Amino acid sequence: MTPYYTKVRKLSGSDYKEIHNSALNIFKQIKSKTKRRPYVRSVYFKRQKIFFDYFWQHLWQKSWKERVKRLKYFLCAIDLIQNSHQQPISKQNPNRKSEILHRFFGVTKHKELFIVQIKEDKKTDRKYLMSVFPAK
User: Fold this and answer.
1) pLDDT tens column, 34-84
2) Helix 16-31 vs helix 74-83: crossing angle, to nearest 10
3) Domain locations along the chain
4) Is it the case that residue 15 has pLDDT exceeding 80?
5) What Å distances lie between residue 29 and 25, 52, 85, CA to CA?
6) Do residues 26 and 78 touch, judged by C-beta distance below 8 A?
């Protein structure tokens, strides 16, 4: 497992509103590039689309402190998805046999380790960004 070294910093800010607005502005730029569902293309998955359908739903299930921690790494996660050639740790979802979970490891510009989790549906071959969080 070798991490991907991002070229961007994590989002700065101390309160939830400030970081949430920054993350939404980044997402709005991604969303404006398509008329349908927002996505980014992944180099590792041979330029396939990675959708954001589950990311925001998953984020809202967390406490506001946890949301702040995770949203700080949003820009780093986008950079990792778009540019990483590094091999993820992949395993079958124990709850659903028709899904594979991929965990990519990344390091921010300030040497902080984080993890990006992508879910792949075997039946449709679609990939979804599930979560981004700092590694413990």
Assistant:
1) 999 999 999 999 999 999 999 999 999 999 899 999 999 999 999 999 999
2) 30
3) 4-28+52-134
4) yes
5) 6, 13, 24
6) yes
Count of residues making up the chain: 136
Rg over CA atoms, the chain: 14
Q: What is the pLDDT of residue 1?
A: 74
Give me the DSSP letters along the chain: ---EE-SSPPPP-SSHHHHHHHHHHHHHHHHTT-SSS-EEEETTTTTEEEE-HHHHHHHHTS-HHHHHHHHTTHHHHHHHHHH--SPPEEEE-SS-TTEEEEEEEEE-TTS-EEEEEEEEETTT--EEEEEEEE--
With 0.70 as the threshold, say if the pTM is over it. yes
d(CA 91, CA 80): 19
d(CA 90, CA 98): 13
